[in-house]
């Protein structure tokens, strides 16, 4: 160890931030904060952080936190293969699954007060008993408290004079995407004295089976998902204590129709209807909220019912369309976030401090809109704009209040937006053009630049800041094979190759039930192929003595597998488990064979090598740039900086020891001249 190069360090995680797009937009002049940041510090000319494998959230944030590869830390995909059932995968954003030491354990041990804020890679439950380690969530990538506080999905409401009755319809309209999320997670208190996690909470999310038989079943089917719709008549007010002149009434249904809220449509002085007022009861004099037409409104507090529970929650809303004569309206009603949800804040006093001084977290929402630019512009982007401001302000409030020396913080905005529309950028999708998607992509990165800019004053206050991402996302040229979907068992390619066999229905068509008596291997999660071995799985049919030969046959067939339209290869790399260590994979948490989809045949990330490029200047590579004390100013390095180098560079900057399982090295070339 040596003397510290900085007294304060922040690692600002920008999930899915693409170095190619960032460089393009910096040069175009639309990311001024990022441009200034890069000029103040060090990076590669191309801004690339050489990514590890697999290119997906939990493994790569864990790699940056530990300085170890997935073969070492054991987090090898978004989900974790069940050891008991080849068909099932389980939850993997759990620090207890991590076999390598996290850098924040080291900083806390060294007496540095440390905040780990929403880091979706082996951060929760807290991995150290040190009172100097504070941890906020990290169990779900999208938003704080997404897994435990979101108790109601967002939905659309239509009210018209020609509608006859108030009704609620499931999966009736629009489209919604919520990638990589387990909602309504169960959290149980651990009360064992002396246990490492005694002060924290444990995650209880059972393994589940997802069979991806066609595109509608997995990630690419996300835009096919429908959202709920409430319908209400608009009519003259009836039964109210008092109503303004000219008002009209309709009913808002909440909690799937279990709660009814009477609403008034109100005219302005010119007689134009331009706002609505939401009431708990027609007897109430004061409205719960008043919404102006076409204004995004945050923090509407009301009740919510979920199962047998009734509690207070916060929602965001927007009246998208309101006829001037008050005869019709369409509005978006955001998901409900439970107010009393401090289970994932350690210590819990942090939650109280944030909600009292900044406000409540917002609900995890389905990212609507890949078929509607109106929804994208008026709902999705404003939601992330509001959430980004809340997260930045809550981070900064805690930094000032608690006096942290080290902060590891993560923001998932770009990734979620990428899942919504990146696959459509190149060709459009019928409803939205190529040019509109290109402009939307620019606007996403402008918002990311604003978020980064909100932290830049810390550079003037003696902090060193690293900006990193776990991966980026490509817009592929072709549709991917049914291989590489992280959500479960990928059947398509393995059926084509004859290794996975499905039970047939009476018409001879494949069902979503695997015929284990004939299945020799399956593809699971993003990159893994498992042999159906006797003695390892209850339904095993492959004799272990035949494993090597069968692996060879499968790898040969996968290498020869061609796209039916282009006749190009589908897989860029196919390796045995033992050989995958060359890419930082392999070991007991990986399949018998690991494979990566070829460039052009990707979902957007996870299935591809980290060097993969896409159309429209997209890539899978993560990003890196840093500035502040200990970092050279205005410096461009030619060194390849790897994700395993992030943790040891933190150690070098802070003058603390390396993590126990560290496999990377400090980024010597960008550090001030001490080496």
Shape: globular
Can you tell me the residue ranges where pLDDT is under 50 for at least 5 consecutive residues? 175-185, 187-202
* Oligomeric status: single chain
Radius of gyration: 26 Å
Structural class: alpha+beta
CATH topology descriptor of the largest domain: Alkaline Phosphatase, subunit A
Architecture overview:
The chain is 21% helix and 25% strand. The chain is of the alpha+beta class and 675 residues long. The chain has 3 domains: 8-148 and 191-209 and 344-475 and 618-670, Alkaline Phosphatase, subunit A; 156-174 and 226-333, no CATH class; 489-597, no CATH class. The strands form 8 sheets. Strands 7, 8, 9, 14, 19, 20, 21 and 22 form an 8-stranded mixed β-sheet that branches. A 7-stranded mixed β-sheet has the order 23-6-5-24-1-25-33, with helices on both faces. β20 and β21 (328-333) form a beta hairpin. The longest helix has 30 residues, at 373-402.
Q: Quick gist of this model?
A:
The protein is of the alpha+beta class and 675 residues long.
Question: Tags for this entry?
Answer:
675 residues, alpha+beta, Alkaline Phosphatase, subunit A, 3 domains, 34 strands, 25% strand
What topology does this entry show?
Elements lengths: L7 E7 L4 H10 L3 H9 L1 E3 L12 H10 L3 H4 L6 E2 L6 E3 L12 H7 L4 E4 L15 E4 L9 H4 E3 L2 E6 L6 E7 L12 E4 L11 E4 L3 E2 L1 E2 L14 E7 L14 E7 L4 E9 L5 E6 L10 E4 L4 E10 L2 E14 L5 E6 L2 E3 L6 E2 L2 H9 L15 H30 L3 E6 L1 H9 L12 H20 L9 E6 L20 E2 L1 H5 L5 E3 L5 E5 L6 E4 L3 E4 L15 H14 L10 E6 L16 E5 L26 E4 L7 E3 L8 H9 L21
Parallel strand pairs: 1-24, 1-25, 2-34, 5-6, 5-24, 8-14, 13-26
Antiparallel strand pairs: 3-4, 4-12, 6-23, 7-22, 8-21, 9-14, 10-11, 15-16, 16-17, 17-18, 19-20, 20-21, 20-22, 25-33, 26-29, 27-28, 29-30, 30-32, 31-32
């Amino acid at each position: 160890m040596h003397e510290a190069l900085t007294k304060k360090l922040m690692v600002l995680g920008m999930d899915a931030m693409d170095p190619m797009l960032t460089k393009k937009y910096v040069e175009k002049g639309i990311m001024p904060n990022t441009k200034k940041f890069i000029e103040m510090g060090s990076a590669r000319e191309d801004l690339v952080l050489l990514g590890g494998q697999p290119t997906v959230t939990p493994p790569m944030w864990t790699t940056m936190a530990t300085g170890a590869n997935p073969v070492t830390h054991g987090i090898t995909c978004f989900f974790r293969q069940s050891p008991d059932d080849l068909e099932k995968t389980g939850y993997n954003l759990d620090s207890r699954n991590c076999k390598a030491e996290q850098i924040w354990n080291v900083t806390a041990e060294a007496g540095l007060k440390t905040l780990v804020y929403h880091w979706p890679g082996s951060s929760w439950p807290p991995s150290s008993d040190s009172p100097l380690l504070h941890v906020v969530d990290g169990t779900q990538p999208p938003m704080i408290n997404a897994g435990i506080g979101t108790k109601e999905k967002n939905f659309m409401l239509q009210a018209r004079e020609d509608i006859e009755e108030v009704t609620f319809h499931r999966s009736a309209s629009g489209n919604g995407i919520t990638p990589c999320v387990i909602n309504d997670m169960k959290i149980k208190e651990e009360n064992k004295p002396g246990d490492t996690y005694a002060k924290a909470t444990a995650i209880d999310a059972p393994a589940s089976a997802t069979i991806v038989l066609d595109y509608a079943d997995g990630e690419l089917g996300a835009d096919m998902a429908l959202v709920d719709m409430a319908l209400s008549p608009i009519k003259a007010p009836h039964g109210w204590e008092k109503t303004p002149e000219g008002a009209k009434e309709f009913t808002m249904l909440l909690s799937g129709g279990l709660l009814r809220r009477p609403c008034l449509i109100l005219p302005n002085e010119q007689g134009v209807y331009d706002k609505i007022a939401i009431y708990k009861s027609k007897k109430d004099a004061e409205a719960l909220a008043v919404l102006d037409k076409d204004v995004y409104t945050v923090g509407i507090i009301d009740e919510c019912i979920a199962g047998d529970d009734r509690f207070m929650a916060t929602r965001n809303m927007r009246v998208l369309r309101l006829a001037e004569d008050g005869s019709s309206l369409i509005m978006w009603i955001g998901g409900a976030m439970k107010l009393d949800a401090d289970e994932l804040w350690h210590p819990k006093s942090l939650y109280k401090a944030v909600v009292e001084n900044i406000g409540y977290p917002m609900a995890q929402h389905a990212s609507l809109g890949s078929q509607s630019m109106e929804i994208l512009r008026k709902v999705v982007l404003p939601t992330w704009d509001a959430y980004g401001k809340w997260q930045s302000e809550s981070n900064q409030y805690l930094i000032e209040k608690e006096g942290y020396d080290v902060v590891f913080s993560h923001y998932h905005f770009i990734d979620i937006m990428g899942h919504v529309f990146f696959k459509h950028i190149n060709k459009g999708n019928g409803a939205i053009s190529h040019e509109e998607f290109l402009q939307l992509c620019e606007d996403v990165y402008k918002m990311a630049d604003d978020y980064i800019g909100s932290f830049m004053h810390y550079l003037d206050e003696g902090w060193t800041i690293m900006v990193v991402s776990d991966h980026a996302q490509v817009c592929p040229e072709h549709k991917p094979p049914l291989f590489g979907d992280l959500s479960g068992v990928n059947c398509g390619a393995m059926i084509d190759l004859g290794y996975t066999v499905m039970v047939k229905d009476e018409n001879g068509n494949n069902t979503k039930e695997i015929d284990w008596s004939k299945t020799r291997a399956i593809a699971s999660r993003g990159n893994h192929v498992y042999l159906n071995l006797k003695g390892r799985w209850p339904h095993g049919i492959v004799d272990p003595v035949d494993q090597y030969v069968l692996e060879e046959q499968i790898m040969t067939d996968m290498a020869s597998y061609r796209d039916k339209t282009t006749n190009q290869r589908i897989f860029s790399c196919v390796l045995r488990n033992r050989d995958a260590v060359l890419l930082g994979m392999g070991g007991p948490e990986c399949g018998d064979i690991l494979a990566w989809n070829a460039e052009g045949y990707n979902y957007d990330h996870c299935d591809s090598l980290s060097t993969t490029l896409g159309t429209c200047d997209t890539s899978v590579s993560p990003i890196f740039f840093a500035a502040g004390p200990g970092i050279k100013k205005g410096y461009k390095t030619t060194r390849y900086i790897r994700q395993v180098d992030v943790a040891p560079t933190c150690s070098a900057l802070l003058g603390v020891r390396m993590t126990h399982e560290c496999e990377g090295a400090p980024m010597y070339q960008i550090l001030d001249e001490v080496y």
